[in-house]
Amino acid sequence: MTAEQLISFARGAPSLDIVDVEGLKAAAVRAFDADPGGITAYGTSVGYPPLRKWIAKKHGVSVDQVLVTNGSLQADAFLFDYLVGAGDAVVVERPTYDRTLLNLRSKGGEIHAVTIQPDGVDTDELRKLLESGVRPKLAHIIPNYQNPAGVTLSLAKRRALLDLATEYGFTIFEDDPYADIRFRGEALPSMLSLDDKGVVVHASSFTKTVCPGVRVGYLVGPAPLIADIAKRATNLYISPGMVAQAIVHQFCASGDIDRSIQTVCTALGERAKVLATSLREHIPGVRFTEPDGGYFLWIELPDDVRADDVFAAAAERGVAVVKGSDFLLEGGEHALRLAYSAVTVDQVDEGVRRLAAAVEAVRA
User: Fold this and answer.
1) Number of domain units in the chain
2) Which of 360, 356, 359 is nearest to 334 (CA)?
3) Which member of 80, 85, 234, 273 has the greatest number of CB atoms within 10 A?
4) Is 227 among the domain residues?
């Protein structure tokens, strides 16, 4: 590997070698053979009906509780547009996905960030915030292998969040695109599946399990809310992309999705393990919680090392990272997010060596 070759820990996307291109090509042929009229027409704002039905079955809900969108970011945007207005209080995790912050800020939301712990968001801190009089419209939670922190919300905290949402009258937005990318441990029930009060709206996508290029995401929530958002979707675009959704449906219905998930889990589990080992070996004083799944690992550098400086020095050495401050309203000056999804195992150790060299350079 040449020094000039960029090693990127910046993008949360799968490398091409773990995308089932052949399976997707075959699914595309089946989609056009099975329903040429349905997938070449405008379709309906709630998404491609067979895929909508498949998603409903996966989550054990009725079909009218599902809206299939052009990627999960659009699902997020629909829900934020529906629930959040200027000055409305919203709760996010600290740190959280950078585009969540951008979207909520653009809506004029009053953002309250609640600390993340190794077992997920600090529900005691959230309760104190609520007891102080803050009344959020929603709490945005990424429960599994959180982006960017990589941690998983414990079962006890899932139940505590549901209780708080019921008591204080806010919606839990369960943003859950990583749930199936599990390397170890038992799968925990979604808050959607535990919800008997209608306080959860769940979002996910096929970006992490199939590929980003299909741009297929979805919302699951109370039927009246989904119906209202569907009306807005009709006005926005008539319907989402039927061709992509039909291909995803064929990919899922055939069982190819299960093989794809296993491929991604195996590859990313190995990459995450090598990354954690390399970080411990090459960067003394680095702190992190090793993830049980997902795409990301969040590191805290020693207090005398600023992430801004490391970011620039790493780029000079051919390695790309994302600064922790991108995921926070304030703070993160000593943190980095490392995505291990797009790097092959043989790139990981070399990437960490370059990162370690960058850390030493800014300390000098």
Assistant:
1) 2
2) 359
3) 80
4) yes
Residues in Cβ contact with 16 at an 8 Å cutoff, skipping those fewer than 6 apart = none
Residue pLDDT, tens place only, 180-214: 999 998 999 999 999 999 999 999 999 999 999 99
Rounded CA-CA distance 98/203 in Å is: 17
Nearest 10 degrees: Cα torsion 130, 131, 135, 136: 0
**Report field, pTM of the whole predicted structure over 0.90:** yes
Helix, strand or coil for residue 46?
coil
Q: What share of the chain has pLDDT > 70, as a percent?
A: 99
Range of the domain at 314: 7-19+258-363
Task: Tell me the C-alpha distance between 141 and 161, whole Å.
Answer: 10
Q: Which residues contact 212 (CB under 8 A, 6 or more apart)?
A: 13, 14
Q: What is the tens place of the pLDDT at every residue in 5-53?
A: 999 999 999 999 999 999 999 999 999 999 999 999 999 999 999 999 9
